[in-house]
Amino acid sequence: EDKVVQSPLSLVVHEGDTVTLNCSYEVTNFRSLLWYKQEKKAPTFLFMLTSSGIEKKSGRLSSILDKKELFSILNITATQTGDSAVYLCAVEAFGFSNYQLIWGAGTKLIIKP
Amino acid sequence: DGGITQSPKYLFRKEGQNVTLSCEQNLNHDAMYWYRQDPGQGLRLIYYSQIVNDFQKGDIAEGYSVSREKKESFPLTVTSAQKNPTAFYLCASSPGQGRGLWGYGYTFGSGTRLTVV
């Protein structure tokens, strides 16, 4: 059965710290891995990763994929209180007849001032 | 601005009642999805539709029904057969699976929080 596992499930750090969130997966017919940030309502897109070893970067956020070890990490440097959110990882994989997104449970990140 | 509109934001239902959650998009997306989100469980797929007048069950379709009569609209009905309907419901859309990597175009609505009273 296809699955996506995120760790840790929750994390509390102080403003200015650097955090690393993990997403591991076991799927057949992998096509891409996506990271989203969910603050209270709609998840918003952060990154899409398809190739191993190529870092995607957006400001203080960066992410990389390892297709050999089947995981991705999301790094946030110099964290701010606005980074507090649930971070969701999803893997796009080909199922029985079409592509599906398989979601992890999310990591709840709390940044203390 | 293009986007997805879900309504209502909050919904209260008495036990035994059916309720319908609205999802409308003006992105010209072919595919639409309904997810349920419970604390600590990520997103679980209820139903999805890749084209008008066609839809498929997701992982947790029991107790739910949908229709796709128009490209823009994909309403979800939570029936009385759904034993534990209290949850946060998210609607999403994407350009369609035949149009390359569609992860970039995957767009969410703001959600409806349903509570059974």
What would you say this structure looks like, in words?
- The complex is a heterodimer of chains A (about 110) and B (about 120).
- In chain A, about 0% of the residues lie in helices and about 60% in strands.
- Chain A has no helices and 11 strands.
- Chain A has strands at about 5, 10-15, 20-25, 30-40, 45-50, 55-60, 60-65, 70-75, 85-95, 100-105, 105-110.
- Chain A is globular and about 45 Å long.
- Chain B has about 120 residues and is mostly beta strands.
- In chain B, about 0% of the residues lie in helices and about 50% in strands.
- Chain B contains no helices and 11 strands.
- Chain B has strands at about 5, 10-15, 20-25, 30-35, 45-50, 55, 65, 75-80, 85-95, 105-110, 110-115.
- In chain B, the strands form 2 sheets. In chain B, strands 2, 4, 5, 6, 9, 10 and 11 form a 7-stranded mixed sheet that branches. Chain B has a 4-stranded antiparallel sheet with strand order 1-3-8-7, with no helix packed on it.
- In chain B, strand 5 and strand 6 (about 55) form a beta hairpin.
- The mean pLDDT of chain B is about 90.
- The interface of A and B includes residues 9, 34, 41, 50 and 90 of A.
The multimeric state of the shown protein is heterodimer
The assigned structural class of chain B equals: mainly beta
Distance between the termini of chain A: 41 Å
Report the radius of gyration of chain A as a whole number of Å: 14 Å
Main pleated-sheet profile of chain B: 7 strands, mixed
Low-confidence stretches of chain B are none
Enumerate how many helices of chain B there are, as a single number.
0
The counted number of beta strands of chain A is: 11
Helix content of chain A: under 10%
Let me know the average pLDDT of chain B: 89
Which overall shape of chain A is indicated by the principal axes computed on the Cα atoms? globular
